[in-house]
Write a structure and sequence with these properties.
13 strands, 22 helices, 6-stranded parallel β-sheet, 7-stranded parallel β-sheet, globular
């Protein structure tokens, strides 16, 4: 962001804050319901809150705090709270009023504001505080719409929730999220019922003579999720399973091409019309409906809205969903036994089916990608430097992770690090990138690491340039607590040793599960200190790094790393077992 744009953004923020502090509900509601979008939320989500506050900003923020502290009129408190959120994040603000007291015209905006957490975190412990805030806010939202039997109140609160709930930035906390997921799921279902969008079916009894299992899959569009779903379908017994791939109508041709070797039929769904899409899926008389995309983050994603309805006899999620879906309509969650801790079943609302090994098998569509030829000069890294590389996503990179990387570079002065955090698989929009990069540089600088040793790649059009960079790297650094998944395949494919830290929740064990399966346990660490020690030792010992690279070369043909061999046979067994249980039958 250039200085002129920043100045205009700051001025607009001050103007919006003054409008809020006037306390006129009708005017604020008008700004929130503008045909071009919610002006307040657009400003809040612009990244402006990551800017250092000026004296003028601080003066307005102090006025907001005073109103929240001493004002008795709820309407003025709500308006001051909305104004203050233009400068601060909700997990750091004392609210002093309840959702049930908010004027109806401001309810949707207030709920969206409550859920508008940072896209990234710059202070130790801030991500955990933000998660606690979201959990408390969702609990209050959930309770309020169940207790207050007023259609307009419920409609406004649910509308705000459906638009405002996005938890990409707080997945990274290695804590149980079942309660949050379940309350979210129930709120989504309330929204569908209230809006008359649900088209649940009552599946007819399956004929005892039928031998074919009709499996429908909701296909994803991103490369990583596509590779994961293909890995789950590759090896499926096509003599038993008849596969229908559901694809979004706006990208039907391109997505269908990714599954043409694994599906018997394709059906395009009108994603802009959820009721029609649900009727189409429900009309297929499916035995199993499996979703291959993440349905645990936002709420209005079409596949999320479909999985919140009963559209097949058995409904299934897999690890593309980062945690339990929470939906009563989803019966089964499939994962690898190496991906889950011993107490895992308690963290799922679904039955948990564990297949042998890890579930992190990826079958990329099309021919193998050839690494692009990249030179160190192109990426600004000296030839003599040791190069660390990480593809950890922007949303996964917090103070704890950057702090560990900075300590490693402090230990090894000849080391440089290159990051490519703006993966288009997560989103095409990364708000306030400048602020994120400034935070990363400041964390490294606090350990005496010059910014000339920290390099960042923008989003790349394909995996080819990424593979080219990884061929230059000495080590790959996985993220923690939220670990990498498909991103780990790239360094392994070019012989670059990855170092990972194993967590507790499944989303924090993906990379370690894959390394355990292929026999590279030595590169799995259990704590941050061990992570730093292992990376430092490998950087300081060329012979040991070469030994690790040779170990990777030795397992290059391992089935877990093959784009041609999937886990479909295990997935098929899990689906048949669960379907028999669901239908209470001994045979299919």
């Amino acid at each position: 962001m250039d200085s002129n744009s920043e100045l205009k953004l700051r001025d607009l923020r001050l103007n919006l804050a003054e409008i809020c502090l006037e306390g006129r509900t009708d005017r604020i509601a008008g700004l929130a319901r503008n045909p071009s979008g919610d002006a307040l939320l657009t400003m809040i989500n612009s990244g402006v809150r990551h800017l250092v506050m000026t004296k003028s900003d601080q003066a307005v923020a102090e006025r907001c705090h005073r109103i929240l502290s001493v004002e008795h009129e709820i309407e003025r408190k709500v308006c001051a709270y909305l104004a203050l959120n233009l400068f601060s994040f909700p997990h750091g603000i004392e609210r002093s009023f309840d959702i049930v007291d908010v004027p109806t015209p401001l309810l949707a905006t207030l709920v969206k504001t409550l859920l508008a957490i940072p896209h990234f975190f710059t202070k130790d412990g801030a991500r955990r505080r933000a998660l606690s805030h979201v959990e408390a806010a969702v609990q209050e939202i959930h309770k309020s719409v169940r207790v207050i039997d007023e259609p307009e109140f419920r409609r406004e609160v649910l509308s705000g929730f459906m638009d405002g709930y996005v938890v990409s930035a707080i997945y990274a906390e290695d804590v149980p999220l079942r309660t949050l997921a379940q309350q979210r799921a129930e709120l989504i279902r309330m929204y569908l019922d209230q809006e008359g969008l649900a088209r649940d079916i009552d599946p007819p009894a399956r004929s005892p003579e039928e031998t074919i299992v009709r499996l429908g899959v909701l296909c994803p569009g991103t490369i990583s999720e596509t590779a994961a779903l293909r890995g789950h379908l590759s090896g499926l017994d096509r003599g038993v399973f008849q596969v229908t791939a559901f694809v979004p109508d706006e990208a039907a041709t391109s997505i269908s091409a990714n599954f043409e070797d694994l599906a018997d039929d394709f059906v395009a769904l009108p994603t802009a019309d959820i009721t029609q899409a649900a009727e189409i899926v429900g009309g297929e008389n499916l035995d199993v409906l499996m979703v291959g995309a993440n349905v645990t983050n936002t709420c209005k994603f079409p596949w999320t809205l479909l999985m919140a309805q009963r559209l097949a006899r058995l409904q299934v999620a897999m690890h593309s969903s980062s945690l339990t879906t929470g939906f009563a309509e989803v019966d089964l969650y499939i994962n690898g036994h190496l991906n889950e801790p011993n107490d895992a079943p308690g963290e799922y609302t679904e039955d948990l089916a564990l297949i042998p090994g890890s579930s992190n098998h990826y079958a990329f569509p099309g021919p193998d990608v050839v690494p692009e030829t990249i030179t160190r000069e192109q990426i600004g890294v000296p030839d003599a430097a040791l190069l660390l590389v990480s593809g950890a996503n922007y949303f996964k990179i917090g103070p704890d992770l950057v702090g560990a990387w900075a300590r490693i570079l402090e230990n090894v002065p000849s080391a440089h690090i290159l990051l490519y955090p703006f993966n288009p698989n997560w989103t095409t929009h990364y708000p306030h990138k400048d602020g994120f990069l400034r935070f990363v540089q400041e964390r490294f600088a606090s350990r005496g690491v010059g910014i000339d040793r920290v390099h960042v790649l923008e989003a790349q059009p394909s995996r080819a340039p990424i593979l080219g960079v990884l061929q230059l790297a000495d080590l790959y650094l996985d993220s923690f607590p939220y670990s990498g998944a498909v991103s780990l395949v790239d360094p392994l494919s070019v012989g670059c040793p990855p170092v990972v830290r194993e967590g507790h929740a499944a989303r924090c064990r993906q990379s370690s599960a894959l390394l355990h399966e292929i026999g590279l346990d030595v590169l799995v660490t259990k704590s941050t200190d061990d992570y730093i020690k292992v990376v430092t030792r490998l950087l300081q010992d060329h012979g040991l790094r070469r030994e690790m690279s040779e170990a990777i070369a030795d397992i290059a043909d391992h089935p877990a790393l093959s784009s041609k061999i999937g886990i479909g046979r295990y997935v098929g067994d899990a689906l048949l077992t669960a379907l028999k249980k669901k239908l209470k039958t001994a045979v299919l």
